[in-house]
Amino acid sequence: MVRITFRNFKTNQKSFSQTQDNSSEREAMQSRASEATPITELCKRINFALFDYETGEKIKTLNQTTDDESFGKITMNLTKGKYAVLVVAHNGDGNATLSNPEKVTFKDNKITDTFYYYKVIDVEEDSNFDMTKKRVVAKLAHPINQGD
Asked: Which pTM was predicted?
């Protein structure tokens, strides 16, 4: 058995609720694109699933909320092998269901500000994985000009 830890859950993008609708804030946000924001500042839930890469069988699932002391860090013992890791961080009212790496459903089909991480890992020895998530949900805003 080997011990692996997934940690440093972060993203290079801000939550929609953290930005304002003015161009100076958008410009400042773009200039900070390389800065990482801890996921704990953006989301209240993390759903984790580990799949056997060869068979697709789900090996393990874990769900965390900001009430959990270990929120944003997952440690486990695994046998050596190749795995697919899927993590979804969001603000939904319930846990997301991670059926397989290509199918994620949310409680009442309600999608909130959501971030994901997917990676195939080859576990041979004790390891740590830092996880930078990407945004899933995008916001479309169409400004209305009063003069048009």
From this structure: 0.74
